[in-house]
Design goal:
The mean pLDDT is 95. The chain is α/β, with parallel strands linked by helices.
């Protein structure tokens, strides 16, 4: 069944986040040959439209207002609901990011619609659009279909591959004007924490440290390896609780969920709550001096050894490539 699908282009620091391009690819599957319309919300965002076309959007709709400079649930939902009213889509796809997780239930509630959240793959089978999502902290997967009404889903970053970039693609950009009012939240200032380098939730390579790094300085060899591999540094809650790093790096059930191509766990025991945030990574390497550590049960490659010896060796070897 062919559908018109709206996809949210997520903007941070005047740049589109990768998940926006993944959402376009997901939107194409949901559209089943129908139109994929990307929505850009912000104060001045229309210059980003081309990038959305390169990744497959058929059309772009912008909502620009100085009150939309920073994300607020009230402001963004007013903007989106106006676009939804103007476009009457049959499908909606957002990234399952902090923003998407906050905004999607609010919009779904206003539309009296269901929502399939944290989707890791979408396929068309037996005449249905089938959404797969992890449950029980990633121990099982469930498949869902929408039998009636709006097809609304959020997709987990790094799971659905974007279409190949094609700079010859272009399309029509239109704008919807909205009187953004009655904002209950006004963002005065954004203070970034530990945001240097690659964004952890979208990183293709994550080097994560646990209590085994033993101190804040113990993260230095991990940072070096991450730099060489173009990746991001993450952590277990054990490392965060011990004050070796900021909680914004925490991966797991009560932290971030990551699915990079390569996850290197250094000095992490592999508690179930940590596995919930990383066990769907494509390739997992574990470095731990305890051969019985639980992390080896989910690892594709295990190195039994002292991380302070192994990590610098890996860094030296990767530098040669
Ligand atoms: P440890 O379990 O202490 O493991 C340290 C490991 O380092 C050991 O395996 C040791 O052999 C190894 N090691 C030590 N020195 C070296 C060395 N030199 N070289 C190599 N290896 C070495 N945890 C999370 O991570 N994320 C979460 O989101 C999360 N949420 C939680 C929610 C709840 C409700 C609860 C109760 C707990 C949660 N936890 C979470 C905590 C979790 O249960 C574990 O306590 C935590 O993951 C342990 O962190 P760790 O593996 O770094 O530390």
């Amino acid at each position: 069944m062919s559908r018109k699908v709206l996809v949210l282009g997520e903007v941070r620091d005047n740049t589109l986040r990768n998940v926006s391009f993944e959402a376009i690819a997901a939107g194409k599957t949901v559209a089943e040959g129908g139109e994929v319309v990307a929505v850009l919300i912000g104060d001045t965002v229309s210059s980003l439209a081309n990038e959305l076309f390169y990744y497959g959007a058929d059309r772009v709709v912008t909502v620009e207002d100085v009150k939309l400079k920073s994300y607020t649930p009230d402001g963004y939902s007013q903007a989106l609901l106006a676009v939804i009213e103007a476009e009457s889509p049959e499908g909606l796809v957002f990234g399952h990011t902090a923003l998407g997780k906050d905004l999607s239930p609010k919009v779904a509630g206003k539309l009296n619609s269901g929502l399939i959240s944290d989707v890791t793959s979408i396929e068309v089978a037996g005449g249905n659009t089938v959404f797969t999502r992890p449950i029980y902290s990633g121990k099982a997967f469930e498949k869902k279909i929408v039998t009636d009404g709006l097809v609304f889903a959020t997709i987990r970053p790094n799971n659905i591959a974007p279409l190949e970039k094609d700079e010859s693609r272009s399309g029509e950009v239109t704008s919807v004007s909205v009187d953004i009012k009655d904002l209950r939240t006004i963002v005065k200032e954004v203070v970034r924490k530990a945001s240097e380098g690659v964004d952890l939730s979208e990183a293709k390579v994550v080097i994560a440290g646990g209590r085994g790094v033993k101190s804040a300085d113990g993260f230095e060899p991990l940072k070096e390896l991450a730099t060489v591999l173009g990746g991001a540094v993450g952590a277990s809650r054990g490392a965060c609780d011990a004050d070796y790093c900021d909680y914004s790096l925490q991966i797991g059930q009560t932290g971030k969920v990551v699915t990079p191509d390569l996850y290197i766990a250094c000095g992490i025991s592999g508690a179930i709550q940590h596995l919930a945030g990383m066990s769907n990574s494509k390739v997992i390497v574990a470095i731990n001096k305890d051969p019985e550590a639980n992390i080896f049960k989910v690892a594709d490659y295990g190195i039994v050894g002292d991380l302070f010896e192994v990590v610098p060796l890996l860094t030296e070897e990767f530098k040669k490539l």
